[in-house]
Protein backbone atom coordinates (compact mmCIF):
# COMPACT_ATOMS: atom_id res chain seq x y z
CA UNK A 1 0.00 0.00 0.00
CA UNK A 2 3.02 2.31 0.15
CA UNK A 3 2.27 5.62 -1.54
CA UNK A 4 -1.30 4.63 -2.35
CA UNK A 5 -3.41 7.45 -3.79
CA UNK A 6 -7.15 7.81 -4.27
CA UNK A 7 -7.33 7.16 -8.00
CA UNK A 8 -5.17 4.03 -7.65
CA UNK A 9 -8.28 2.40 -6.22
CA UNK A 10 -11.51 4.07 -7.31
CA UNK A 11 -12.65 3.25 -10.83
CA UNK A 12 -14.98 6.24 -11.18
CA UNK A 13 -14.80 9.88 -10.12
CA UNK A 14 -17.70 12.26 -9.49
CA UNK A 15 -17.78 15.92 -8.51
CA UNK A 16 -20.48 17.47 -6.35
CA UNK A 17 -21.10 21.20 -5.95
CA UNK A 18 -22.61 22.87 -2.90
CA UNK A 19 -26.10 22.96 -4.40
CA UNK A 20 -26.13 19.16 -4.71
CA UNK A 21 -24.38 18.34 -1.44
CA UNK A 22 -26.46 15.87 0.59
CA UNK A 23 -24.27 14.06 3.15
CA UNK A 24 -25.09 10.48 4.03
CA UNK A 25 -23.83 9.71 7.55
CA UNK A 26 -22.75 6.10 8.03
CA UNK A 27 -21.27 6.03 11.51
CA UNK A 28 -20.64 8.33 14.48
CA UNK A 29 -18.59 7.63 17.58
CA UNK A 30 -16.86 9.22 20.56
CA UNK A 31 -13.71 7.37 21.53
CA UNK A 32 -11.10 7.46 24.31
CA UNK A 33 -7.74 5.70 24.18
CA UNK A 34 -4.34 5.63 25.88
CA UNK A 35 -0.83 5.21 24.46
CA UNK A 36 -1.59 1.65 23.36
CA UNK A 37 -3.93 3.08 20.72
CA UNK A 38 -2.76 2.73 17.14
CA UNK A 39 -4.22 2.68 13.67
CA UNK A 40 -2.13 0.66 11.20
CA UNK A 41 -1.78 1.69 7.56
CA UNK A 42 -5.14 1.54 5.84
CA UNK A 43 -7.51 3.24 3.46
CA UNK A 44 -11.17 3.95 4.09
CA UNK A 45 -14.00 3.93 1.57
CA UNK A 46 -15.90 7.03 2.66
CA UNK A 47 -14.96 10.33 4.29
CA UNK A 48 -14.04 10.58 7.96
CA UNK A 49 -14.04 13.82 9.94
CA UNK A 50 -12.36 13.66 13.34
CA UNK A 51 -12.54 16.35 16.05
CA UNK A 52 -9.90 15.89 18.74
CA UNK A 53 -11.18 16.81 22.21
CA UNK A 54 -8.18 15.91 24.36
CA UNK A 55 -4.68 14.55 24.01
CA UNK A 56 -2.27 14.15 21.14
CA UNK A 57 -1.89 11.98 18.02
CA UNK A 58 0.87 11.45 15.56
CA UNK A 59 -1.03 11.03 12.31
CA UNK A 60 0.25 10.24 8.82
CA UNK A 61 -1.96 10.93 5.82
CA UNK A 62 -0.72 10.39 2.27
CA UNK A 63 2.87 10.11 3.57
CA UNK A 64 2.65 13.48 5.34
CA UNK A 65 3.05 13.55 9.14
CA UNK A 66 0.95 15.72 11.49
CA UNK A 67 1.07 16.30 15.24
CA UNK A 68 -2.62 16.51 16.04
CA UNK A 69 -3.72 18.14 19.29
CA UNK A 70 -6.93 19.02 21.10
CA UNK A 71 -9.02 21.41 19.01
CA UNK A 72 -7.65 20.11 15.73
CA UNK A 73 -9.73 18.47 13.02
CA UNK A 74 -8.77 15.75 10.57
CA UNK A 75 -10.50 15.24 7.24
CA UNK A 76 -9.59 11.88 5.73
CA UNK A 77 -10.90 11.27 2.18
CA UNK A 78 -11.63 7.88 0.64
CA UNK A 79 -8.76 5.77 -0.72
CA UNK A 80 -5.97 7.82 0.89
CA UNK A 81 -3.47 5.84 2.94
CA UNK A 82 -3.23 6.89 6.58
CA UNK A 83 -2.13 5.67 10.01
CA UNK A 84 -1.64 7.02 13.52
CA UNK A 85 -0.51 6.33 17.07
CA UNK A 86 -0.69 7.97 20.47
CA UNK A 87 2.74 8.95 21.89
CA UNK A 88 3.91 7.27 25.07
CA UNK A 89 2.33 8.78 28.16
CA UNK A 90 -0.38 10.52 26.16
CA UNK A 91 -4.07 9.75 25.72
CA UNK A 92 -6.67 10.68 23.16
CA UNK A 93 -10.36 11.56 23.09
CA UNK A 94 -12.19 12.38 19.88
CA UNK A 95 -15.40 12.40 17.87
CA UNK A 96 -15.42 10.71 14.47
CA UNK A 97 -18.02 10.74 11.71
CA UNK A 98 -17.92 8.54 8.59
CA UNK A 99 -20.02 9.83 5.70
CA UNK A 100 -20.44 10.18 1.95
CA UNK A 101 -20.95 13.56 0.29
CA UNK A 102 -24.06 12.14 -1.37
CA UNK A 103 -25.95 8.88 -0.98
CA UNK A 104 -24.62 6.47 -3.60
CA UNK A 105 -27.44 3.93 -3.33
CA UNK A 106 -27.71 0.45 -1.84
CA UNK A 107 -25.27 -0.99 -4.35
CA UNK A 108 -22.41 1.02 -2.87
CA UNK A 109 -23.50 1.14 0.76
CA UNK A 110 -21.69 -0.84 3.46
CA UNK A 111 -21.63 -1.41 7.22
CA UNK A 112 -19.04 0.55 9.17
CA UNK A 113 -19.22 -2.07 11.91
CA UNK A 114 -18.27 -4.84 9.50
CA UNK A 115 -15.60 -2.92 7.55
CA UNK A 116 -14.01 -0.71 10.22
CA UNK A 117 -15.02 -1.74 13.72
CA UNK A 118 -14.44 -5.49 13.43
CA UNK A 119 -10.73 -5.12 12.56
CA UNK A 120 -8.12 -6.01 15.20
CA UNK A 121 -5.99 -2.94 14.63
CA UNK A 122 -3.61 -3.65 17.51
CA UNK A 123 -2.12 -6.81 16.02
CA UNK A 124 -1.62 -6.00 12.34
CA UNK A 125 0.72 -3.69 10.42
CA UNK A 126 -1.74 -2.80 7.68
CA UNK A 127 -5.39 -3.36 6.89
CA UNK A 128 -6.01 -5.35 3.70
CA UNK A 129 -7.91 -3.49 0.98
CA UNK A 130 -11.47 -4.60 0.29
CA UNK A 131 -11.45 -4.90 -3.50
CA UNK A 132 -15.23 -4.81 -3.77
CA UNK A 133 -15.45 -1.48 -1.95
CA UNK A 134 -12.81 0.08 -4.19
CA UNK A 135 -15.50 -0.02 -6.89
CA UNK A 136 -17.32 2.78 -5.05
CA UNK A 137 -17.13 6.08 -6.98
CA UNK A 138 -14.77 8.70 -5.60
CA UNK A 139 -16.96 11.75 -4.93
CA UNK A 140 -15.20 15.06 -4.37
CA UNK A 141 -16.16 18.70 -3.93
CA UNK A 142 -16.03 20.61 -7.19
CA UNK A 143 -15.76 24.00 -5.47
CA UNK A 144 -13.23 23.47 -2.70
CA UNK A 145 -10.37 21.17 -1.76
CA UNK A 146 -10.42 20.37 1.93
CA UNK A 147 -7.08 19.93 3.72
CA UNK A 148 -6.30 16.81 5.72
CA UNK A 149 -5.54 18.75 8.90
CA UNK A 150 -7.23 21.88 10.24
CA UNK A 151 -6.18 23.80 13.34
CA UNK A 152 -9.52 25.28 14.34
CA UNK A 153 -9.58 28.81 15.71
CA UNK A 154 -12.77 28.24 17.71
CA UNK A 155 -13.30 24.47 18.04
CA UNK A 156 -15.81 24.91 20.86
CA UNK A 157 -18.30 26.27 18.32
CA UNK A 158 -18.53 22.93 16.53
CA UNK A 159 -18.38 20.49 19.47
CA UNK A 160 -22.14 20.66 19.96
CA UNK A 161 -22.72 19.61 16.34
CA UNK A 162 -20.64 16.47 16.84
CA UNK A 163 -22.46 15.68 20.08
CA UNK A 164 -25.77 16.24 18.31
CA UNK A 165 -24.71 13.82 15.56
CA UNK A 166 -23.66 11.20 18.13
CA UNK A 167 -26.93 11.47 20.05
CA UNK A 168 -29.01 11.23 16.89
CA UNK A 169 -26.99 8.29 15.54
CA UNK A 170 -27.18 6.44 18.87
CA UNK A 171 -30.87 6.99 19.58
CA UNK A 172 -32.04 6.80 15.94
CA UNK A 173 -35.39 8.58 16.31
CA UNK A 174 -37.87 8.56 13.44
CA UNK A 175 -36.36 10.46 10.51
CA UNK A 176 -32.89 10.38 12.07
CA UNK A 177 -31.11 10.25 8.70
CA UNK A 178 -32.56 13.67 7.86
CA UNK A 179 -31.35 15.04 11.19
CA UNK A 180 -27.88 13.59 10.60
CA UNK A 181 -27.75 15.14 7.14
CA UNK A 182 -28.68 18.54 8.57
CA UNK A 183 -26.05 18.26 11.30
CA UNK A 184 -23.39 17.20 8.82
CA UNK A 185 -24.21 20.20 6.64
CA UNK A 186 -23.71 22.46 9.67
CA UNK A 187 -20.31 20.86 10.33
CA UNK A 188 -19.24 21.28 6.70
CA UNK A 189 -20.48 24.87 6.76
CA UNK A 190 -18.42 25.52 9.88
CA UNK A 191 -15.32 24.10 8.19
CA UNK A 192 -15.81 26.30 5.13
CA UNK A 193 -16.07 29.40 7.33
CA UNK A 194 -12.84 28.40 9.06
CA UNK A 195 -11.00 27.88 5.78
CA UNK A 196 -12.37 30.48 3.36
CA UNK A 197 -13.37 34.13 3.18
CA UNK A 198 -16.93 35.23 2.45
CA UNK A 199 -15.96 35.18 -1.24
CA UNK A 200 -14.78 31.58 -1.04
CA UNK A 201 -11.05 32.41 -1.10
CA UNK A 202 -8.67 30.13 0.80
CA UNK A 203 -7.58 32.12 3.86
CA UNK A 204 -4.18 30.43 3.88
CA UNK A 205 -3.44 31.00 0.21
CA UNK A 206 -0.25 32.97 -0.41
CA UNK A 207 -2.04 35.28 -2.88
CA UNK A 208 -5.30 35.71 -1.00
CA UNK A 209 -5.19 39.51 -1.24
CA UNK A 210 -4.65 39.50 -5.02
CA UNK A 211 -7.44 36.98 -5.59
CA UNK A 212 -9.82 38.89 -3.32
CA UNK A 213 -9.02 42.13 -5.15
CA UNK A 214 -9.75 40.40 -8.46
CA UNK A 215 -13.14 39.23 -7.21
CA UNK A 216 -13.96 42.74 -6.00
CA UNK A 217 -13.04 44.06 -9.45
CA UNK A 218 -15.43 41.54 -11.01
CA UNK A 219 -18.29 42.82 -8.86
CA UNK A 220 -17.50 46.44 -9.65
CA UNK A 221 -17.22 45.88 -13.42
CA UNK A 222 -19.91 43.23 -13.86
CA UNK A 223 -21.38 44.77 -17.01
CA UNK A 224 -18.02 45.25 -18.73
CA UNK A 225 -15.77 43.01 -20.78
CA UNK A 226 -13.14 41.92 -18.25
CA UNK A 227 -9.64 41.16 -19.52
CA UNK A 228 -7.98 38.82 -17.03
CA UNK A 229 -4.64 39.17 -18.80
CA UNK A 230 -4.68 42.88 -17.94
CA UNK A 231 -5.52 42.06 -14.32
CA UNK A 232 -2.66 39.56 -14.17
CA UNK A 233 -0.20 42.12 -15.54
CA UNK A 234 -1.40 44.73 -13.06
CA UNK A 235 -0.52 42.27 -10.28
CA UNK A 236 2.89 41.60 -11.86
CA UNK A 237 1.95 38.00 -12.58
CA UNK A 238 1.95 36.06 -15.83
CA UNK A 239 -1.59 35.32 -17.08
CA UNK A 240 -1.16 31.55 -16.83
CA UNK A 241 0.28 31.72 -13.31
CA UNK A 242 -2.46 34.12 -12.26
CA UNK A 243 -5.17 31.76 -13.52
CA UNK A 244 -3.53 28.86 -11.67
CA UNK A 245 -3.38 30.84 -8.43
CA UNK A 246 -7.02 31.91 -8.77
CA UNK A 247 -8.17 28.30 -9.30
CA UNK A 248 -6.11 27.14 -6.32
CA UNK A 249 -7.57 29.81 -4.06
CA UNK A 250 -11.24 29.54 -5.08
CA UNK A 251 -11.71 26.14 -6.70
CA UNK A 252 -13.00 27.89 -9.84
CA UNK A 253 -11.39 29.37 -12.93
CA UNK A 254 -11.63 33.13 -13.41
CA UNK A 255 -14.30 32.66 -16.09
CA UNK A 256 -16.30 30.23 -13.95
CA UNK A 257 -16.21 32.62 -11.01
CA UNK A 258 -17.27 35.61 -13.11
CA UNK A 259 -20.08 33.56 -14.65
CA UNK A 260 -21.35 32.52 -11.21
CA UNK A 261 -21.41 36.17 -10.07
CA UNK A 262 -23.27 37.28 -13.18
CA UNK A 263 -25.86 34.52 -12.97
CA UNK A 264 -26.50 35.11 -9.27
CA UNK A 265 -27.07 38.78 -10.04
CA UNK A 266 -29.35 37.81 -12.94
CA UNK A 267 -31.44 35.58 -10.69
CA UNK A 268 -31.77 38.37 -8.14
CA UNK A 269 -33.02 40.73 -10.86
CA UNK A 270 -35.46 38.08 -12.10
CA UNK A 271 -36.83 37.69 -8.58
CA UNK A 272 -37.38 41.46 -8.42
CA UNK A 273 -39.57 41.08 -11.52
CA UNK A 274 -39.36 44.58 -12.97
CA UNK A 275 -36.97 44.10 -15.91
CA UNK A 276 -37.18 42.24 -19.19
CA UNK A 277 -34.89 39.28 -19.75
CA UNK A 278 -33.00 41.30 -22.37
CA UNK A 279 -32.47 44.14 -19.89
CA UNK A 280 -31.29 41.67 -17.25
CA UNK A 281 -28.90 40.10 -19.74
CA UNK A 282 -27.32 43.47 -20.45
CA UNK A 283 -27.29 44.41 -16.75
CA UNK A 284 -25.03 41.44 -15.95
CA UNK A 285 -22.63 41.84 -18.86
CA UNK A 286 -24.22 39.79 -21.66
CA UNK A 287 -25.05 41.88 -24.71
CA UNK A 288 -25.95 38.75 -26.68
CA UNK A 289 -29.32 37.57 -25.37
CA UNK A 290 -29.02 34.18 -27.03
CA UNK A 291 -25.62 33.55 -25.44
CA UNK A 292 -26.96 34.65 -22.05
CA UNK A 293 -29.89 32.24 -22.35
CA UNK A 294 -27.60 29.40 -23.37
CA UNK A 295 -25.21 30.08 -20.48
CA UNK A 296 -28.04 30.43 -17.97
CA UNK A 297 -29.60 27.13 -19.00
CA UNK A 298 -26.23 25.36 -18.91
CA UNK A 299 -25.59 26.35 -15.29
CA UNK A 300 -29.11 26.58 -13.87
CA UNK A 301 -30.77 23.72 -15.75
CA UNK A 302 -33.57 25.80 -17.26
CA UNK A 303 -33.96 28.85 -19.47
CA UNK A 304 -34.23 32.38 -18.02
CA UNK A 305 -37.93 32.45 -18.87
CA UNK A 306 -38.39 29.04 -17.31
CA UNK A 307 -36.63 30.24 -14.16
CA UNK A 308 -38.91 33.27 -13.94
CA UNK A 309 -42.00 31.10 -14.32
CA UNK A 310 -40.69 28.76 -11.61
CA UNK A 311 -40.74 31.70 -9.21
CA UNK A 312 -44.47 32.11 -9.81
CA UNK A 313 -44.09 35.80 -10.50
CA UNK A 314 -45.51 37.85 -13.37
CA UNK A 315 -43.87 36.67 -16.63
CA UNK A 316 -41.32 39.04 -18.05
CA UNK A 317 -41.99 40.90 -21.26
Automatic annotation (TrEMBL):
It holds the Pfam family HTH_18. Keywords: DNA-binding, Transcription, Transcription regulation. InterPro entries: AraC-bd, Homeodomain-like_sf, HTH-like, HTH_AraC, HTH_AraC-typ_CS, RmlC-like_jellyroll. The keyword Transcription applies. Residues 212-310 form the HTH araC/xylS-type domain. It comes from the Bacteria. GO terms for molecular function: DNA-binding transcription factor activity; sequence-specific DNA binding. This is AraC family transcriptional regulator.
Amino acid sequence: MEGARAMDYSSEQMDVDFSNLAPYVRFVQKYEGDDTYKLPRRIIYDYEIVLVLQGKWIYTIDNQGYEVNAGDMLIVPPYIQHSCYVPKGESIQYYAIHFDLVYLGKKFDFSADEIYNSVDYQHIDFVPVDDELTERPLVEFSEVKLPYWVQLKEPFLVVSHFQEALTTFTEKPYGYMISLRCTMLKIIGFILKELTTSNGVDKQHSHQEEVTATIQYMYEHLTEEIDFNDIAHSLFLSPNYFRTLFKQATGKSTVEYLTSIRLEKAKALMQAGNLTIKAISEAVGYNDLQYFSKTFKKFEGLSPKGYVHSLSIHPLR
